[in-house]
C-alpha cells in the first residue's frame, strides 16, 4: 500500500503570498493531521480533520486554514505568508482520530 | 497541559556501542507515548509506541523503550547502534492519540 503522499515536495514563495499544500492519506484512513516543523525543532500540531470535520486546532493564527475532501485528501492553506512560516509541513493520516498517525515526507516551504 | 522534554539535543555514540536517548513528559492524565525517527530530508517514521500494558515496548530496527510512570519517563534504548541509525529522534505524547505533542528532538551521531 502507498503511504501518505504530499505535494509539492518543495516550494518557494515571497512574503504576503498565499500557498496551498496537499496531502493524500493512506487508503482506508479517514483522519488527516497537519504539523509544522521549523528547522531544529519538533513538529507542532496545526489541525486535525476527520470525516471532513475539523476535530482539533493548534495555536496557529487564522492565516492558517485547512479542509478535507470526500475522498479524505486534505489541503492546508496559508495566507499572507511571513518569513517565519518557512518550515517543513508534515501531513499524517490515521484510520480514526484515536489511532496511530503515519507521516508523509513533508512539503518544504521557503518564504523569501 | 502536556509537554515533552528531551534532555539531550545531540548524542554521539561509537558504532556497535549501546545508546540511550532520554525523554521525560508531563501530563495530568494517562497518556500514549511515542518515539519517531526522522532521517535526513525525510518525514517521520514511527519507531514504537506505548498505549497500555507492558512497560517495556519493542520497536523496529532493534530499538526498545521503557515507560516509567513514577519518573514520567520514556527512554529509548538500543544495545548496539549502526551507522544507519544516524538520524533525529523525537519523543512524543498524546492524551488521546489525536493531537501529538513532540519534543525538540535528539540528534544521534554514530562515530566510526
Structure description:
The complex is a heterodimer of chains A (112) and B (112). Chain A is mainly beta and 112 residues long. Chain A has no helices and eleven strands. Chain B is built from no helices and twelve strands. In chain B, a hairpin with a 5-residue loop joins strand 5 and strand 6 (44-50). Chain B is globular, with a radius of gyration of 13 Å. The model of chain B has no long low-confidence stretch (mean pLDDT 91).
SSE map:
The complex is a heterodimer of chains A (112) and B (112).
Chain A lengths: L4 E3 L2 E4 L5 E6 L6 E7 L6 E7 L2 E5 L6 E5 L5 E5 L8 E8 L7 E2 L3 E5 L1
Parallel strand pairs in A: 2-11
Antiparallel strand pairs in A: 1-3, 3-8, 4-5, 4-9, 5-6, 7-8, 9-10, 9-11
Chain B lengths: L2 E4 L3 E5 L4 E3 L1 E4 L5 E7 L5 E7 L5 E3 L5 E5 L4 E6 L8 E8 L6 E2 L3 E6 L1
Parallel strand pairs in B: 2-12
Antiparallel strand pairs in B: 1-4, 3-9, 5-6, 5-10, 7-8, 8-9, 10-11, 10-12
What's this entry about, in short?
Chain A is mainly β.
Which terms would index this structure?
A: 112 residues, mainly beta, 7-stranded mixed sheet, 11 strands, 0% helix, globular, B: 112 residues, 4-stranded antiparallel sheet
Largest sheet of chain B: 6 strands, mixed
Order of helices and strands of chain A: EEEEEEEEEEE
The rough form of chain A would be described as globular
Helix/strand class of chain A: mainly beta
Tell me, rounded to a whole number, the average pLDDT of chain A: 94
Q: Span from first to last CA of chain A?
A: 37 Å
Q: Which pair of chains forms the biggest interface, and how many residues does each contribute?
A: A-B, 27 and 20 residues
